[in-house]
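Slide 14.
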Amino acid sequence: MNYDVVVVGAGPVGSTAARYAAKNGAKVLLVEEHSSIGSPVGCTGLLSTRAVAECELRPSDEFVLNSIRGAFVYAPDGQCLPIDGKQTKAYVVSRKNFDRSLATLAVEEGVELSLRTNAVGLEQAGLEQADRKAETETCGKKDPPVKLKVLRNGEPEIINAGVVIGADGVKSQIARYAGLGMPERVLPGIQIEAPYASEDSALVELFPGSQAPGFFAWTVPLNERISRIGLAVEPNLLGQGETPISCLQNFLASNPHVKARYGGGMLDFVVGGIPIGPPEKTCTDGVLVVGDAAGQAKPTSGGGVYPGALAAKIAGRVAAEAALEGNTSSGRLAEYDRLWRKALGKELEIGMKVHDHIGKLEDRQLNELIASLNTPSILETITDYGDMDHPSVVLKKLVLSANSLRLMKAFGTFVRTCF
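Slide 15: predicted structure.
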């Protein structure tokens, strides 16, 4: 039970981290508390083309259910902002099959996979001195840097590791055991899969406003007849007695556009949380956290696969190199924290500003904002530069465009605070 790297959580991020640790020469164990990969599902399953590419998968009928080229954005007053990307921008996927594809890649790289293995504790050797090596060679030493306590098929075991990577989601136990902080905020979300007559099954529908306080509601088509319908909210903006469930019920019953297309009932039901705002630290002696456990989801859309996969590659490589070098101190592992923030930090920071600004607008202000964007020249700019994973790109283009004065009136001082 001695490994260079142990990854907790076999979602897309965990499987990618494990694969990259193995690619860099480490002996790797990937543990998953559930009895199968990809279940239960807690995600909309809308992945940008860049997210799929970042995971190093080719789009396949094995996991792709539908292709998406844009969105209809509906203001609270019903006006529609059509954003057509003219080509595939995202895929609606079966998360079960997508996750299993990534776990298969990890196993093919030499990663050992252990299902029904639940992490229940963590002991760190204490590696404050960067040159301490006596306990850091994980194969054959009595005192490894990290002892991971697990229940495997209900039986207690101890796994010795050079580095433990926590990819165990929004309520990360690894982060808690290691004394790392939690994401700044968690947006509770709820989604059903239901009969729904899409206006165009190649475009998702987005509904910002008071029906989903602080975030937005959505419909994501699987085909012309079935969609995933859901929303997420900022908990502190909910009214008295409001819950995500009551918000979804109200949205289905009272939004005229949705009510006319929703066929009633549901085929599936999922709940989950979107972690936004990374903690101050994502590493400590012998431990890294990545993905939702590190609050690396995009605050604008809630998507976590692209930033999580990008960070997971860094985490896997750094963890493997540190373990093989015999130095898994927090100082050595800080390379991971520095590199992922260099790659993603600015975009997440701008995304949080956008999230907070848009989320606090009243319905009247959202109506005005969407009306101000609904011009041919602005829509052309959004089509040309819109990017689910890097929204700052289109923001900069809009601010620097000939429409900047028009947009400044709509955004107020917001654009000046972003850049």
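Speaker note: Residues 127-142 have pLDDT under 50 and may be disordered.
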